[in-house]
Amino acid sequence: MARWVGRCPKCQSWGTIEEAPSAGVVKVGGRRVVAAGAPATPARPIAAVELDSARARPTGVAELDRVLGGGLVPGAVVLLAGEPGAGKSTLLLEVAARAAAASARNGTDSAPVLYATGEESAGQVRLRAERTGAVHDQLYLAAESELGAIVGHLDALRPKLLVVDSVQTVSSAEVDGSPGGVTQVRAVTVALTALAKSRGLPVILVGHVTKDGSVAGPRVLEHLVDVVLQFEGDRHSTLRLLRGIKNRFGPADEVGCFELRDDGIVGVADPSGLFRASHDGPPAAGTAITVTVEGKRPLLTEVQALVAGKDIPSPRRAVSGLDSSRVAMVLAVLERLANVKLYDAEVYTATVGGMKITEPAADLAIALAVASAKREKPLPGGLVVVGEIGLTGEVRRTTGVVRRLAEAARLGFTRAVVPAGSELDAATKAAIQVLEVDRLQPAMRALGM
After folding, report:
1. Where does motif RadA KNRFG motif map (predicted)?
2. End-to-end CA, the chain
3. CA distance 354 to 356
4. 301 - beta bridge partners?
5. Helix (H) or strand (E) segment spanning residue 442
6. CATH assignment of 56-269, given 3.40.50.1820, 3.40.50.300, 3.90.650.10, 3.40.50.150?
7. What was the pLDDT predicted at 253?
8. For the chain, how many helices (H) and strands (E)?
9. Fold of 274-446
């Protein structure tokens, strides 16, 4: 505490005290802001920092490891968000079981895995584990919704992995507010993050989402954690996409594919077959195959179109799995510049297998599928189409054409329509026959539309 001193307490002389700045005290405008404290750990040269503490350990689920950048890093906090019923708990129960099995195989380095559930009872989780085959002696369940109780379990078990399902159901007695509120969610996440960093314990948090699909709770929640994953999927489809939103330890644009089955959830290493309808006969009118890129993964997707009726006063425009605004733009370009009359007919466009396409590279496939449906002329077999369409009918270049065509060639496609000026290497041209177009009309004429 600062006070006035006129006489030196040591030599007892008057007027000898001189003002001097205190060591480690930062002042702004004459006011004390902060004083130096004892560092928790001494600063070290960057070359002396050990790398083992930041190396990822595989989870045993290949598609999850792809999105995480190799696996879980010790001390990392992962937030997995998704709509109810998407399969978040099923996926994490599978991850916990595989981590427990790997821990049991390590022998001397064996440590359990703790699955803390605040939404279900331990019996309900056990029933799901029985159905999916995720029962293991090293996997421990704790039906707790109080943070202090979860920390007590951590002290007793010393696990190698903690799964909390979900962070919105956990509350702390030290903080005011109801469970799921902004204050409680922030406090619980801060406490669990501090525990993860101090103990080198990877923590996976399940998060709820709002109506618009964003993570529920305060926005700072996404800044507190190291990794944010979004689990997406239509409840009427078995396809699930795990999308990386934020990742401090790896790529933030990677996508993993899963299929939800009655006996659990499994990774799909080659998901292109899920996004295409199988046709045993000749090509059907109104279909076009494109190659979309999700993260760094090229996926073949089938776009279907149906043009029905004529002289309808108020025709419908129905879209499923595509960007409705881009479909409306493509239809306008078709009618204005390609002489495809659609003003009095109903137009339905959709993707196959529950895939959602938002990138403009699918514009050309949408246009050719609609033109094929209108004129009842199927596109040639073994053809993929990639390209963005502008308002004047030009076909614009898109990214990753070589990677897209390599995937198409691997799956047996022999022809491709791409934007003019695409930088194609010799290997790509040798693997697949490429037609480069600069406008929509020449592309339609070349394909007999």
Report:
1. 246-250
2. 87
3. 6
4. 290
5. helix 440-446
6. 3.40.50.300
7. 80
8. 11, 20
9. Ribosomal Protein S5; domain 2 (3.30.230)
Does the predicted model carry a pTM greater than 0.85?
Answer: no
Which three-class secondary structure state does DSSP give residue 283? coil
Q: Is 427 annotated as a binding residue?
A: no
Amino acid at 314: S
What three-state secondary structure class fits 398?
A: coil
Cβ–Cβ < 8 Å for 151, 195 = yes
Whether residue 14 has pLDDT greater than 80? no
Q: CA–CA separation, 301 vs 76, rounded Å?
A: 35
Q: Is 107 annotated as a binding residue?
A: no
Asked whether the beta carbons of 221 and 185 are under 8 A apart, the reply is yes
The answer, yes or no, to whether residue 131 has pLDDT greater than 80, is yes
CB 326 within 8 A of CB 211: no
Q: Say if residue 82 carries a ligand binding annotation.
A: yes
Residue 236 structure tokens: 């009427």
For the ranges 188-192, 260-264, 369-373, the lowest mean pLDDT is seen at: 260-264
| Continuous segment of H or E residues that includes residue 112 | none
Is 85 labelled a binding residue? yes
Position 447, amino acid:
L
Q: Domain coordinates of the chain in residue numbers?
A: 56-269, 274-446
The dihedral built from the CA positions of residue 204, 208, 213 and 214, taken in this order, carries a sign that is negative
Question: What 3-state DSSP class applies to 387?
Answer: coil
Residue type, position 326, single letter = R
Q: How deeply is 160 buried, as exposed, middle or buried, from its count of CB atoms within 10 A (0-12, 13-18, 19+)?
A: buried
Is residue 180 marked as binding?
no
* 412-438 per-position pLDDT tens digit: 899 999 999 998 999 998 999 999 999
Is 88 one of the annotated binding-site residues?
yes
| Mean pLDDT confidence for 99-104 | 86
Distance CA(255)–CA(293), nearest Å, equals 10
pLDDT at 261: 87
pLDDT tens per residue, range 349-364: 999 877 889 899 999 9
Quick one: tokens of 76?
């990392």
Q: Is the pLDDT of residue 288 over 60?
A: yes
Residues in the chain: 449
